[in-house]
Amino acid sequence: MNDLNIRKNSISEDAPLYTFINFTSYIYNNYKTFIFIILGIICISLLDAFYCLVVKAREQSKYLKDLDLERERYFIVVEQLNDIIFDFDITEKKILSSSKFEETFGWTLNIQDYNKGFLNELKIHPDDKILINKITDDMKALNKQSIIKQIRLMKSNGDYLWCELKLNYIQRDNKIVRVIGKITDIDHIVKEHSLLKLRSEYDQLTQIYNKSTFYEKVKNYIIDNKNDNCMLIFIDLDNFKAINDNLGHMVGDEVLKDTANKICDVFNGTDVIISRFGGDEFCVFKPSHSISFIKDKISILCSNLNATYIGNNTEITVSASIGVAFYPKHGDTLESLIHKSDIALYSSKENGKNQFTIYNKNLEIEC
Predict the structure, then answer these.
(1) Which of 295, 331, 358, 321 is CA-nearest to residue 219?
(2) Mind telling me which residue stretches traverse the membrane in this protein (predicted)?
(3) What angle do CA 225, 229, 234 make, to 5 degrees?
(4) Which of these CATH numbers, 3.30.70.580, 2.60.120.260, 3.30.70.270, 3.40.30.10, describes 202-366?
(5) Dihedral angle at the C-alpha atoms of 139, 143, 149, 154, nearest 10 degrees?
(6) CATH second-level architecture of 84-190?
(7) What is the DSSP string of 311-344?
(8) Would you say 152 and 124 are in contact if contact means Cβ atoms under 8 Å apart?
(9) CA separation for the pair 272, 220 (Å, rounded)
(10) How far apart are CA 321 and CA 326, in angstroms?
């Protein structure tokens, strides 16, 4: 303060600086203790703030290290999964997926700025697009937190794999901002199931429908097409037992396969349902045409099925007796049509075999 007084004495009393120095001297002399307290508080506050800043920086550094560690652990876990994990960031329009996606499909799903709807980036089979629309609708309506669908996704070579797609979404303010998904390869399961279904539907020897499938498909057709005119053809081989007895069951199996092929050659439309009904019996259900057309077709079938088989120095001729009934003229259920066509078939047998008979009421009187 002595230095301050010397400077004060060397300055004119009218100068602003003199006034300022005089005021400063007054404050210092009268409030010195208070000023030191204030300065102490400020210093302590600054030190506290600095300490907090250092601590926060350390905590943030530790947090970032922990976050990096968790991220690394997450990616390790994801890469070890058999399933494919992907992440759609709808806000940033970014897609990330585990490396197994590229291993499985041969192309990458990692996209930085997609233009289409994010699900369309998956290259979904055209027939499954309707499922994707349903998924999108459910997500928009926020109806389901977890959505699971079976769809086909395209590989780089153009083939499709059956996959199970599971989606979970994150929303903010009733708006979906992120979709986390899992893709599971179920191709072998679906194909195995399809194979088992085929085996359950088809006769393993002749590769045409078995009896139970025939019942199911014909009944469904009648339900869906009640106003159609249809015919049921019941076929029973003549002399087939002689084939098994004299030529053996292996030849008998070949005769049955040959019979099925001949039936399919004559009745080859997409609307025809053909079945091995059991043993040496076969059934054909078809939307009917004119009587003359039907007679021509069945006459051709009779001619084709009339064949001679040779073995063990023995010749055996196999033919077919056939009965025909019409829907709804002769019956409005499959059971009634089978019953009527069986009556007609019996008449063909009684009248010399190797022929067909169309059902009429007089046949029941004869039976």
Answers:
(1) 331
(2) 34-55
(3) 105
(4) 3.30.70.270
(5) -10
(6) 2-Layer Sandwich (3.30)
(7) ETTEEEEEEEEEEEEEETTT-SSHHHHHHHHHHH
(8) yes
(9) 13
(10) 17
pLDDT in tens, 205-262: 999 999 999 999 999 999 999 889 999 999 999 999 999 999 999 999 999 999 999 9
What tokens does 106 get?
């041969």
Show the tokens assigned to 40: 């102490």
Per-residue pLDDT of the chain (367 residues; tens, 9 = 90+): 455 455 545 555 555 666 666 666 766 666 667 677 777 778 777 777 777 777 777 777 776 676 666 666 655 555 556 788 888 888 888 888 888 888 888 888 877 776 666 677 778 888 888 877 777 677 667 666 677 888 899 999 999 999 998 888 888 887 888 888 888 899 999 888 888 888 889 999 999 999 999 999 999 999 999 889 999 999 999 999 999 999 999 999 999 999 999 999 999 888 899 999 989 999 999 987 788 888 899 999 999 999 999 887 888 999 999 999 999 999 999 999 999 999 999 999 999 999 999 999 888 766 5
What is d(CA 207, CA 121) in angstroms, rounded to the nearest whole number? 40
Helices (H), the chain: 2-9, 16-80, 99-105, 129-140, 187-201, 211-224, 240-247, 249-266, 291-305, 334-350, 361-366
Alpha-carbon distance of 210 to 282, in angstroms, equals: 9
